[in-house]
Design a protein that fits this description.
Elements (H helix, E strand, L loop, with lengths): L5 H24 L15 E8 L13 H6 L7 E5 L9 E5 L4 E4 L2 H10 L5 E11 L2 E12 L2
Antiparallel strand pairs: 1-6, 2-3, 3-4, 5-6
């Protein structure tokens, strides 16, 4: 192996940590945005609809209550879809708020359609309204806009 000169060692000592820090910052920032990065004025809407979140009365794997989470949600809040496949529902899509808390799922038919028909389409997903309360279970209705690729 060739021995490094002094100036090469100095550059290595300075640039290597800076590169690592830059890479970490890039990793942290690359997934930020979601619906906020969609600029509707430059995209063509191919589907605009409302749907309800299913499974809202079940508990989450971490022990949190979906009912308590939905109770604290507001209309207009951005929503994130994440795949959560199971043996019974391989196309399952979970509905999460920006804090990473799961509100429920999309129904099986819609989840399969989203996965197969719109896998790479940009979309805007927000809470349309919260239903229930009092002596009834809370529910959550979503407004989904899917844009052309």
């Amino acid at each position: 192996m060739k021995k490094l000169k002094t100036w090469q060692k100095v550059l290595l000592i300075i640039c290597y940590p800076v590169g690592i820090v830059y890479f970490i910052i890039w990793l942290c920032n690359r997934n930020k945005g979601g619906a906020a990065t969609v600029n509707p004025s430059k995209l063509t809407v191919i589907r605009d609809f409302n749907t309800k979140v299913v499974g809202v009365t079940f508990g989450n794997d971490d022990g949190s209550s979906r009912q308590a989470i939905i109770k604290n949600c507001k209309a207009g809040e951005d929503i994130i879809f994440k795949p959560v496949p199971t043996a019974e529902y391989p196309d399952a899509i979970g509905v999460f708020n920006k804090r990473g808390q799961q509100l429920g799922h999309l129904n099986a038919e819609l989840a399969a359609e989203m996965k197969n028909k719109y896998p790479n389409n940009p979309m805007s997903v927000t809470i349309n309204n919260i239903t229930g309360g009092g002596d009834k279970s809370y529910g959550c209705n979503l407004h989904i806009i899917i844009y052309a690729v």
